[in-house]
Amino acid sequence: MMAGAQQQRLKLLGPGTGVSMYTIRVQMALCIKELSYDFLPEDPWSKSDLLLASNPVYKKLPVLIHAGRPVCESLIIVQYLDDAFAGNGTSILPTDPYSRAVARFWASYIDDKVCFLSFGLSL
Ligand SMILES: N[C@@H](CCC(=O)N[C@@H](CS)C(=O)NCC(=O)O)C(=O)O
Fold first, then answer.
1. Which intervals hold domain GST N-terminal (predicted)?
2. How far is the CA of 20 from the centre of ligand 1 (A)?
């Protein structure tokens, strides 16, 4: 069942233009968890006060805001969604600890190799 953005109060700050592998990763997780959300487009080269206040350390996108609280870094956001909405949609990480470690290895590999290489396409 689709949980409403109003009910869950989920907002996703992401680039308003271009392709962001990091933001797509979070959007895929939101889809798997069957969560609706409000997308707030940002200009990564002219950062809004909301972005700076939500991610003061890295000042990067994406940022998920849940019930007014920001969660930063795409992989951490994905794990947060899996934990916070355990009853929604399909589980993203497996339950077996070894399988979780393998999944985290490949997520980290994608960060190192794929997202880095695609930076030329992203913002
Ligand atoms: N490790 C971060 C990387 C995020 C990232 O590099 N975001 C880019 C957009 S794709 C960004 O905000 N660039 C603007 C900047 O570096 O100031 C994550 O996984 O969320």
1. 10-89
2. 8
Euclidean distance between the first and the last CA atom of the chain, given in angstroms as a whole number: 33
What residue ranges define each of the domains in the chain, with the CATH number in brackets? 5-120 (3.40.30.10)
Look-up of token digits 């109060």: 9
Q: Say how many CA atoms lie within 13 Å of 57 toward its Cβ.
A: 5
CA of 23 from ligand 1 middle (Å) equals 9
State mean pLDDT over 9-28.
Answer: 94
User: 113 pLDDT band (50/70/90 cuts)?
Assistant: confident
pLDDT above 90: residue 1: no
Pocket, ligand 1, Cβ cutoff 6 A: 15, 20, 22, 44, 59-62, 73-75, 122-123
